[in-house]
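User: Quick one: structure for sequence A, then sequence B.

Assistant: Sequence A:
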Amino acid sequence: MALKAILFDVDGTLAETEEVHRQSFNAAFRAAGLPWHWSRDLYRELLAVTGGKERIQHFRAGLIDPPGCDVAALHRAKTECYTALVAAGAVALRPGIARLLAEARVQGVRLAIATTTTPANVAALLAAALGPEGPALFEVMVAGDAVPRKKPAPDVYRAVLEAMGLDPAGCIAIEDSRNGVLSARRAGLPVLATPGLYTGDDDLRHAVAVLSDLGEPGAPYRHLGGVGAGEGWVTVEALGRWVEDGGGP
């Protein structure tokens, strides 16, 4: 099957961003005078809640005597910290991402982003990692609060497909987490999963392939499940074959 489009998640998929997000949350808490600190173990648990504001609200709701705070303002401060760190070079693209983007562009495969993070976070990452032309590589970006429900609901992927005038046939999503995989599958998309620092223990059984990353010539991915064993690095041609193996939702 000829591949029509690749729909990318951002955090943990395009780049290993979650640790920088965690550091930015903690910096915002300190700046606001809040006695909160999210450890790596706690943050791993909190990632089950998609969306930064939602994550703060969930954490605060679990406290016995939560201090008053403006969640929206706190999240804005966190975003400012995160985008500054990304602009300073704190985050790099995961292996194979830049190569696959370039290959897709040459072969006329359409590219889009489906994420729960904010547009400012996405723009900062793309500009820092791919240069000023980075955001223009993606035809459509649906991010943050643009849809009623965040992942694992299918809303963000359905919105991207609608904006591109596509149905799921011939398209594939690339994700790193259980919530992301479920979101894409519920929208009818096959999914390639590349778990990251905080999602290595996620249940990714619904992905058509689970790989350590997209791989590079000379630095092949580790095959963790599904199709793709022995191939080494993800190509547009391989994704076209894997789409056929992806089945329905």
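Sequence B:
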Amino acid sequence: MEYSKEFKAAISNFSSLEKDRLIFRLLKKDKLLSKKLYFELIDPENTDQKRAQMEENIREKLTLLSKYLSNHKYYLMHIRKISSEITEHVKVTTDKYGEVCLNLFLVNEILENNDKLNTQRFDNTYKLYLYLINKITKSFILTKKLDEDYWMEIDEYLREIQQKIEKNHSLKKLCENNGLSLNWFTAEKIPANIDQVVKDLKAQGFLR
């Protein structure tokens, strides 16, 4: 919605008390905006601290979830919830680097369960693996949009994930079948047009 000059002028003419009431009324309806303003105005923790806190939160939740790994629908449902918390972190803090590294951290921690995952039927892990592949491809796209100063740190996450994929035959095969090359697991080797590559793959029915 676009606001006319007249509408903006009318809002500006509100008294301080009226503006305060309006702001608090709006904040009650928009929890995300409330968290964002709190972070920007008075939160004692900075972006790096929030990111570290998120990593610890992810690790703790995945440790608890690991006992439900065989209940694939329940497990994936809660993985999606953790992912939504990462999305909220990014929206609140505008942490673009964190958007990449936290999602890769999530993938990495899930693949810590390779021993258990490798014993399950592929039918039961297919949706989880496809979800992880999409996480990785999105992270590739976002990595290419970041300043190259971040690439070395991101490479550490990618290297660990690559090693774990190599130890998971089903996931490795699914990566290959969906056009995800294991040669791309360093920031420098990610294709410059990776966003278009992913669009083309999806247009062909892959990554779905």
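The chain is about 75% helix and 0% strand. The chain has a mean pLDDT of 95.

User: Thanks, that's what I needed.
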